[in-house]
Amino acid sequence: MGLWFTEKQTPNVGITCKTSNTLHVEQTPFQHLAIIDTVQFGRMLVLDGMVQTTVVDEFVYHEMIVHVPVNTHPDPKRVLIIGGGDGGTLREAVKHPYVEKATMVEIDARVVETSKEYLPELSSALKGHPRAELLILDGIKYVEENPNTFDVIIVDSTEPVGPAEGLFSLSFYRSIFAALKEDGLFAAQTESPFFNSDLIRRVYRDIAATFPIAKLYLANVPTYPSGLWSFTIGSKKYDPEQPQGRFPDLDYRYYTRDLHRAAFTLPRFAADLLKS
Questions:
Q1: Containing domain of residue 118, as a range?
Q2: Phi, psi of 55 (to 5 degrees)
Q3: Less packed terminus of the chain by CB within 10 Å, N or C?
């Protein structure tokens, strides 16, 4: 009959998937890691009991966290990714012909190695891509130690607990501001507007207090809590609703030039979060 995996997304809501196999389980120095094969979404990466990505719907999240900020910038030569151990964000970043170097800083080496073994669709750029660099380091410290270096920074973090908690702080956003060049910008995943409204309010307030331009945008990711997911951009100069990028013709599956702009048109309840 098969077993079922359930992520309790809130104390009152969960998502349940029928599984066909458990491929890998371990406790890393930072978190509990599992790779599960599910009937509906294929192979699934789970950290501390929370779904991080699946091979069926991962393209939505990874395209939207990368191509929106990178196509906002007119000359995104240096890109930094904080987190993103599965490799999907790095894969999308190095697709851009104008990105000369994409550096991924991940704290948990076991997430990287396990993804290379079980999630080859996501981790392809981790296997020797000439414009990709992998560093197993604390992302917060790395940002602090590299001022005025990057055109675009992408924070592809897990939920704001455990090793990722500091990636949602005002002090970290200030460090990002310093690590960006004078016209740089950054984007971060900022959870569900249905289930994490208080977090979105706080993050948006802190980013708006740090950057001249702050914007929230949305995408639909089926396996994430509520299915509606938010990202927040902080920019020194370029407005993501009036992108300055060259929009290379890549193998997008979700992202389009029109969707780029449309993603910033928020439902009333989400827009009201930012006003409050």
A1: 58-275
A2: -70, -15
A3: N
